[in-house]
Task: inverse folding
């Protein structure tokens, strides 16, 4: 049993036309025939009971984004929360939950255990080649803020008179 995902909401209709759109991802999504890709992974997590899993094609698209943007499992999870274009590409609506990093890792392991990963990525590469496309990997960037002990000049002191806020001042 798989989750029902991707139902568009009224919130998408309220967004300006270009918000959350990535022309390259939209073009890639349109060029690829997802049926042969889905056929390779269609029977992963087909449990008829229990907690619904993510549709395998959604997780395949997550792995593609991860590969194309050189992102770790936690980075791609964060990017899916942050980037509307990524959510649209994989088929998640604004209200859909994002797969966590362990789900992404387990799915990748399931592909490897079945030997399906090479077939899957080979099919995607074959289709892109046939359409005349080459995907160049990029990177997701993240600024990390680190609290640091900084030396700041005192506002009461004139230039060259020392600094009372400098812990090393003598």
Result:
């Amino acid at each position: 049993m798989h989750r029902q995902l991707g139902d568009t909401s009224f919130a998408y209709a309220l967004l300006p036309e270009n918000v959350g759109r990535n022309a390259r991802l939209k073009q890639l999504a349109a060029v690829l025939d997802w049926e042969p890709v889905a056929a390779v992974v269609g029977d992963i997590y087909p449990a008829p009971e229990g907690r619904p899993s993510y549709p395998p094609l959604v997780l395949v698209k997550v792995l593609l984004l991860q590969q194309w943007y050189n992102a770790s499992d936690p980075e791609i999870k964060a990017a899916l929360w942050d980037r509307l274009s990524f959510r649209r590409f994989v088929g998640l609506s604004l209200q859909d939950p994002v797969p966590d990093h362990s789900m992404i890792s387990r799915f990748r392991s399931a592909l490897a255990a079945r030997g399906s990963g090479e077939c899957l990525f080979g099919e995607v590469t074959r289709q892109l080649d046939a359409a005349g496309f080459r995907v160049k990997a990029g990177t997701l960037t993240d600024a990390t803020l680190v609290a640091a002990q900084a030396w700041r000049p005192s506002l009461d002191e004139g230039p060259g008179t020392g600094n009372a806020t400098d812990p090393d001042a003598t």
Q: What stands out?
A: Helices lie at 10-14, 23-31, 34-41, 56-68, 73-82, 84-90, 101-114, 117-130.
